[in-house]
Amino acid sequence: MKICNICHKISATDQDHLDCIQKRSIEMEDMDFKNKLPEKLELSNNPQDLAVGIKAILEHLTKSKDKENKL
User: Fold this and answer.
1) pTM score, whole prediction
2) Which tens digits make up the pLDDT trace of 17-49?
């Protein structure tokens, strides 16, 4: 028996719990995804471009909504 390095509870095997290992892996993937998100969205390049993009999306959504209301 040994103590799991992740949850610090007793493990029946001489290794960390499998669910703890998987949970840590998922958390690390999430952190990696969060760190890369601004690069994927290109937010760090020019924040003013984001405002233009948001306006375009909102205009598109309102036009789509107007078309649905007319039908």
Assistant:
1) 0.49
2) 999 999 999 999 988 888 887 666 665 566 666
- 1-15, 21-35, 43-57, range with the lowest pLDDT: 43-57
Rounded to 5°, angle at Cα 39 from 34 and 44: 105
The answer to whether 17 and 4 have CB atoms below 8 angstroms apart is yes
Q: CA-based Rg of the chain, rounded to a whole angstrom?
A: 23
Enumerate residues 6+ apart whose C-beta is below 8 A from 54. none
Cβ atoms within 10 Å of 7's Cβ, excluding its own: 14
Opening angle at CA 47, ends 44 and 52, nearest 5: 135
Is residue 23 within 8 A of residue 6, CB to CB? The reply is yes
